[in-house]
Amino acid sequence: TRHSAIMDQYDPEKRVGIIVDEWGTWFSAEPGTNPGFSYQQNTIRDAMVAAITLNIFHKHAERVHMANIAQTVNVLQAMILTDGEKMVKTPS
């Protein structure tokens, strides 16, 4: 809200948007996995973070022109987890 208020002072026509790059959670890697890969099993916590974050972006859609989740597959708050040929969608 403060960002929008400041931007409104200089751009009342809202021609300039905010781009949010690589949003999402970042917790410790799962025990027993390679820590360099940052693998995390998603939980309801991640679903709540995603829902709250997307709601904030939606509430500020007149300024937030683009928002990209940080990772999509097998790392951090991924939307998809794979194991060989198997795949599952996560709560994110």
From TrEMBL:
Transmembrane segments: none annotated. It holds the Pfam family Alpha-L-AF_C. SMART domains: Alpha-L-AF_C. GO terms for biological process: L-arabinose metabolic process; polysaccharide catabolic process. InterPro entries: Alpha-L-AF_C, GH. GO terms for molecular function: alpha-L-arabinofuranosidase activity. Residues 21-92 form the Alpha-L-arabinofuranosidase C-terminal domain. Homohexamer; trimer of dimers. This is Alpha-N-arabinofuranosidase.
